[in-house]
Amino acid sequence: MTLLTIEGASKRYGQVQALDTISLDVTAGSRTAVVGPSGSGKTTLLRIIAGFEQPDSGRVMLDGELLADGPAAVPAHRRGIGIVSQEGALFPHLDVAGNIGFGIARGADNRDKRVLELLDMVELDRGMLTRRPHQLSGGQQQRVALARALGREPRLMLLDEPFSALDTGLRENMRKAVARVLQAAGITSILVTHDQAEALSYADQVAVLRDGRLVQAGSPQSLYLAPRDRETALFLGDAVMLPAIIRNGHADCALGHVAVDSEHQGKVEIMLRPEQIRVVTDSSEQPYGGRVVEVDFGGATCTVAVSLDGVALPPILIKTSSVALPSRGDRVRLEIAGKAHVFAR
Ligand SMILES: Nc1ncnc2c1ncn2[C@@H]1O[C@H](COP(=O)(O)OP(=O)(O)OP(=O)(O)O)[C@@H](O)[C@H]1O
């Protein structure tokens, strides 16, 4: 069931077309990530959903209710939408209990019990109830902000780069914890981030924005393995692009005869993710071999640069484990796992 529908939403600030006819559906109970480079319109889209901005045209519907129809809109505080932002925006003069309890009606007889439930839900120790925000770590502050937003029992939770101020390890833990908490509470969420790895790992649906347009939306796997175009491919991760000629489901390219995911025929560009390519040391002078020109030992993930025989292409970069790592100068052949992607034309 669709919870949120955005239909042809556009927004212009002076000369800047911040959003250009964006349409997106969000399924109830799911996790969507909106990702895109700086200035692509992510925050504007989030603010339009939240009701802090109105679209110039287009509609926003939540659970069958029309929230915005062009500039006519339901005010933000009546939308039943929760927000957790990068700063957390806790009230500095209130302790944790006060912050979490903020959204719960003052006279409610189960208020204290509810505060404790929310604290447990975000996996914070009860000893923290009397602390002020400045006595908490960044991750703890974000948990309090999440508990406070959950206290209002929102229909939809918007997460505006909530992890970006945290260290890498903590970021990952918080991302998993937030996904767990929202799943347990059955709350649909939309995460805005410029970090593509975060988007891929958090979401069931990833929506890629570029220059105010929705380039592609779909499952993380489908976007990563079958991006619409070169730019999206490179935005979502490292990629090896090669010219090829396709005949009957296979591409002839510098790597040999490679299976592809498309019915196209003729001259195309194919894409492989570096982890689809395996480097095998092979001193026989087979066709489609190459020579290792550089090895970057990176611990768990190493990068091997291979210059392919008889091709005027820059060396291709392959991610590999540190086990059986070839050396510079070794003759190698490259084995492909899965299919190469052909960009739609
Ligand atoms: N209030 C405003 N007035 C004028 N221009 C604005 C305003 N808000 C946003 N913009 C412009 O609209 C475009 C989209 O901005 P937006 O903040 O939505 O992008 P973003 O993808 O969230 O970027 P970032 O990742 O840097 O936060 C940008 O070109 C921005 O400069």
Automatic annotation (TrEMBL):
Species per Swiss-Prot/TrEMBL record: Rhizobium metallidurans
Xref: Pfam families: ABC_tran, TOBE_2
Keyword Cell inner membrane attributed: no
InterPro entries to which the protein is assigned, alphabetical: AAA+_ATPase, ABC_SmlMolc_Importer, ABC_transporter-like_ATP-bd, ABC_transporter-like_CS, ABC_transpr_FbpC, Mo/tungstate-bd_C_term_dom, P-loop_NTPase, Transp-assoc_OB_typ2
Protein name (database record): Iron(III) transport system ATP-binding protein
GO CC annotation terms, alphabetical: ATP-binding cassette (ABC) transporter complex
UniProt domain ABC transporter: residue ranges: 4-236
Superkingdom, taxonomy of origin: Bacteria
Family statement: Belongs to the ABC transporter superfamily.
Cross-referenced Gene3D superfamilies: 2.40.50.450, P-loop containing nucleotide triphosphate hydrolases
